[in-house]
Design goal:
- The protein has 200 residues and is α+β, with helices and mostly antiparallel strands.
- It contains eight helices and four strands; from the N terminus they run ααββββαααααα.
- 45% of the residues lie in helices and 11% in strands.
- Strands 1-2-3-4 form a four-stranded antiparallel β-sheet.
- The longest helix is centred in the middle third of the chain and has 16 residues.
Length: 200
């Protein structure tokens, strides 16, 4: 019997309008195809588990993604980070996904791999990303907020990058100013960008 997590409901509700139908569709499809799956939140994203990690989805400001944990073993293709995180590129509507029949086949394949205990393929070595470059307005704000500056310095590069990317995605100066203020507040409290979705 499938188990749903209320944090996934909250994640979908807080996603952009375009993303919600895509996420709802994917969630229902996974549960219909794999009735015994359970839900979890990892790295701030909705995950589906069945004898281990099965697949996951995520929403961003302008697109969604969907990915199988055992990626290439399921779909036969590598994840293209240039497209998006996931095997299916940047998703903005349900029609961007493969057909329902194909997705069901992928889910069943992922289930079989997990049931058989097949290990995830070794991920190809990726070029290490340089530390994220702190934008001038954030650097100036951190100088005036020593507690936030100290916490920000303690954050992992990925946590710092999440905040920097979030600021960079702001479409207006007003939005960027609001996000900058929120960043200082959350960082001072030691919170990651996606702290609301982290398992407590």
């Amino acid at each position: 019997m499938s188990t749903k997590d209320t944090r996934i409901d909250a994640y979908i509700a807080k996603s952009a309008d375009f993303a919600q139908p895509v996420l709802v569709y994917l969630r229902e499809l996974v549960h219909e195809t794999c009735p015994d799956c359970t839900e979890a939140t990892k790295w701030g994203m909705p995950f589906f588990e069945y004898h281990g990690l099965l697949c996951h989805m995520a929403s961003f400001s302008r697109h969604c993604s969907f990915s199988f944990w055992k990626g290439k073993l399921v779909t036969g293709q590598d994840v293209s980070e240039e497209k998006a995180m996931g095997q299916f590129g940047r998703l903005t509507r349900i029609e961007d996904l493969p057909s329902r029949t194909r997705l069901e086949a992928y889910i069943k394949k992922a289930m079989q791999l997990n049931e058989a205990g097949v290990a995830s393929p070794a991920r190809s070595k990726q070029v290490k990303k340089p530390p994220p470059r702190i934008p001038a307005d954030l650097a100036a704000a951190l100088k005036k907020a020593p507690t936030a500056a100290a916490r920000f310095k303690e954050f992992s590069p990925s946590n710092r990058r999440e905040y920097i990317d979030w600021l960079g995605e702001a479409k207006t100066d007003a939005t960027r100013s609001k996000r900058l203020a929120t960043t200082l507040e959350w960082v001072a409290e030691g919170k990651s960008r996606n702290w609301k979705y982290e398992r407590k």
